[in-house]
Design goal:
Elements lengths: L1 H7 L1 E4 L25 E6 L6 H14 L4 E3 L10 H5 L4 E2 L3 H9 L22 E4 L3 H6 L7 E4 L4 H9 L2 E8 L6 E3 L5 H9 L5 E3 L12 E9 L16 H7 L2 E4 L1
Parallel strand pairs: 1-10, 2-5, 2-7, 3-4, 3-5, 6-11
Antiparallel strand pairs: 7-10, 8-9
Length: 255
């Protein structure tokens, strides 16, 4: 995590006065007073790979007092190169049951004897991270444009409202500058990627290789906590679409 952060020069911006639950964020007391779970961290935009969001996973324990599960397709754990990158970020399936189970999982702060766990022991449970624009965020990403592509599905926001999750919309500027992708002009690979639920493309980075361009990445956060409600009573889910855009004022484009 430290190596990636230095390669890209990653900076996180967090306004502790923006929400009461941010009071201890990034302070020495956060280890004993972590952010109240459940928490959903939205990493925007997807780009080819959101390295800023990956760095966030490594440092979230010292910022929020929690370590997240990362929702993603399981095949990334089998791709040469990528599997070593994602191994430490606790990848879980992107389905309703899995997401709700992890959000409902109690945060483990003490061991069987009631002793406080050391910083060396992972503190997962109650927090997940996810990239909301998925495959569209890969195929529609363009260098020079910081844009988030949101579809019509509202499943994730419904889960957040049902669980009363603390929603952190994070925008990582310069994500789309790391790579450009090679794909067909007819959208066939994007269509096939959606059918197979795995992205098929060729990433080009530094020197025309899969090594990302070295850019400065700045991550900003905006937060809102949902209210626990039965699914039948959830209303106004579409209203939460403003969250990623409000993070740093970037464009949100429906498709």
């Amino acid at each position: 995590g430290v190596i990636i952060a230095k390669y890209f020069t990653v900076t996180f911006l967090l306004d502790r006065s923006s929400h009461p639950d941010y009071a201890t964020a990034g302070t020495p007391t956060v280890e004993d007073n972590p952010m109240p779970a459940p928490v959903v961290a939205l990493a925007c935009p997807h780009g080819v790979i959101n390295f800023g969001a990956i760095v966030w996973v490594y440092f979230s324990r010292w910022v929020m007092g929690l370590e997240q599960y990362t929702a993603g397709v399981s095949i990334v754990s089998k791709v040469p190169g990528l599997r070593y990158l994602v191994a430490p970020i606790s990848v879980i399936p992107v389905d309703r049951n899995s997401l709700k189970r992890r959000l409902q999982e109690p945060v483990r702060l003490t061991d069987e004897k009631g002793q406080r766990l050391s910083a060396k022991v992972p503190r997962t449970g109650g927090m997940i991270g996810i990239v909301p624009d998925g495959i569209a965020g890969i195929f529609k990403s363009k260098s020079g444009e910081d844009v988030l592509f949101i579809g019509k599905k509202r499943g994730l926001m419904r889960i957040c409202l049902e669980e009363g999750a603390f929603i952190m919309a994070g925008w990582f500027a310069s994500t789309n500058e790391m790579f450009r992708i090679v794909t067909d002009p007819f959208g066939c690979l994007e269509w096939l990627s959606r059918r197979l639920k795995v992205s098929l493309f060729v990433p080009l980075g530094r020197w025309g290789t899969p090594v990302p361009h070295r850019v400065a990445v700045t991550g900003g956060e905006l937060a809102r906590r949902g209210l626990p409600r039965p699914l039948a009573e959830v209303r106004g889910v579409a209203a939460l679409r403003w969250l990623p855009r409000a993070a740093l004022g970037h464009s949100v484009i429906p498709y």
